[in-house]
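Q: What does the assembly look like in three dimensions?
Context provided by user:
Components: three
Sequences:
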Amino acid sequence: MSDFFSHSTAIVETEQIGSGTRIWAYAHVMKEVQIGSNCNIGDHSFIESGVVVGNNVTIKNGNMLFEGLVLEDGVFVGPHVFFTNDLHPRSPRLPQAKMRYKSHDWLYKTLVKRGASLGAGAVILADTTIGEYALVGAGCVVSHDVPAYALVVGNPARQIGWVCECGITLKEDGQTGVCPSCSRRYHIKDQKISPL
Amino acid sequence: MSDFFSHSTAIVETEQIGSGTRIWAYAHVMKEVQIGSNCNIGDHSFIESGVVVGNNVTIKNGNMLFEGLVLEDGVFVGPHVFFTNDLHPRSPRLPQAKMRYKSHDWLYKTLVKRGASLGAGAVILADTTIGEYALVGAGCVVSHDVPAYALVVGNPARQIGWVCECGITLKEDGQTGVCPSCSRRYHIKDQKISPL
Amino acid sequence: MSDFFSHSTAIVETEQIGSGTRIWAYAHVMKEVQIGSNCNIGDHSFIESGVVVGNNVTIKNGNMLFEGLVLEDGVFVGPHVFFTNDLHPRSPRLPQAKMRYKSHDWLYKTLVKRGASLGAGAVILADTTIGEYALVGAGCVVSHDVPAYALVVGNPARQIGWVCECGITLKEDGQTGVCPSCSRRYHIKDQKISPL
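A: Here is the predicted structure of the complete assembly.
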């Protein structure tokens, strides 16, 4: 077992947790969950079997991570983000729906790529990918893939700009984007972006 | 007492729970709650006195069910759905509002009829009825009644189609709706639907 | 220490809690939190160091109150309201973002003034002030200051009326607003309101 911390009121049922990771009060991590090193998992979080979390990930309080979700390195999940894994949800106990839940065909995946941020209370529909370093605004409803470095807001989420790897909105000058905070520079053309 | 399961960290203060129902970690079920058989109640849920839950209901994690709510048989409540029971909320401790909270006149009811599904993070305003087998999309804000079998999305929620009892969106051909998954058929006319 | 109640499963790490305040199951109140008297703090709530809560405040279940938040006397926080304190969130563990989190410059404040109400699942972006006796509808996304006594709904939140100190929507007659419940009267002119 690695050197991780879990609060006395937390339930941790997996041993696949990296060094330096901290799991806080009333959190519940099920068996068959993989969590990297140096992560922070807030109070009242729930992580279901099958979820994979990378290194340096921050999961704020009250998050529910369901089977089918992968969070890559350095992701930020704000408080109470809503992940889903079923596009046609019914109670599996409902007689008319039981057949659909006999196999795992109902399960759709969600991938949040490295360095991306999900704002408080964002709703992430299943079968989507959030691109690397994208920033999803608080309270957004995301029903389509989000491009890398994109800043999206609203319901449904739409892109209103680009963000730096450090999180600050880029200033655009022709085909160049510059971060006013850390001075990183990017090439932007035809709705595509790449670091310079 | 019937044969139900509750996790060692859950608080269950009612005995009116049906056989086969399971209540998970850090959940709190108050006294004077009625829950049917074969239900599943997720981690970090809270069920207030006066709530009535039918049979075969699935309540995902982090749900708060307040007085005035009835969930009929086979309902699905996604993670962190928001129920309310007060259309003009104030702190009952605020001197200017105290008078309004002396009786129970402030309390409005919510009814979710059999087989309906509420997506993750949906907000259900009080004094509404969700029709049988309706499907409320993730992140919706529902401020009016939802018809039976209706698929609603957005803020405010609006109807964009019809769903089968099994949960799949119907394909419409004139006045007939057919489920591409289970082949159930429906008659649709003048915004009304009935199984054939 | 004052005479407050905390449930046996709650974690309370501050002693600055006023008389008559009640803290319920699975709630976690960190050190260096200040809470007034006669408050009610629901199950599964989390209050971070640095938060200040006045007297007669009602905090419903599942709320996460983060550093930088001040709730004045008599405020109502509905279930699962989303507070934030970072307008450009990144994992502080992400190498590219670490520099921004070395000081506290990233932290923005939120002020909810006396008697205001925040509906279930409302998202309150940081760096905003909710005016006294304002009412924020359930599921709103608030990204700008809300005027005193304003009723706001939607995403983004927009004003659709005025509310009385008791919580009921005012009836407007020229420059006078009258509460149909408690008969309080207000002068309304040029988008400003004051009690008569």
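Follow-up: Residues 45 and 62 of chain B are 5 Å apart (CA to CA).
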